[in-house]
Amino acid sequence: MAFPSLYWFRACSTMPGPRDARARGGAMEQFAARWLTARGLALVASNQHAKGGEIDLVMREDETLVFVEVRHRTDIRHGHPLETITTTKQRRLVRAARFYLQRNGLSCPCRFDVLAVTGTLPDLEVEWVANAFEAF
Fold it and tell me: Rounded to two decimals, what is the model's pTM?
């Protein structure tokens, strides 16, 4: 019996590829936007790219502009989603937020929130940390 080629194995593997991960990330960000909207925030923008960083969601709560980082894990075997917001990630988010404010000519109160989502549909657990860290 001949063994299948390595190419065949890779093509038939069930490991998610980069496209799948991006699609899951986009779907989770859409879920997060709807979840936060249902709690009184208004969506301003999503997937805002800047030098060295990306802002998942830009939302507004009253007069405050809220920069939201969405983190998802199917389980917590390898750590909780909140544990992935390192100091380096915070710096990148702050830099991206400053770029966003400058590019749009905005000067308003801002904060950084993190939405940590664990599980798979339909059983998702959401933890919202408002004002998760300060700009430094």
Answer: 0.82
Q: What are phi and psi of 59, to 5 degrees?
A: -130, 170
CB 132, CB 114: distance < 8 Å? yes
Overall fold of domain 39-128: Trna Endonuclease; Chain: A, domain 1 (3.40.1350)
What rounded mean pLDDT belongs to the chain?
85
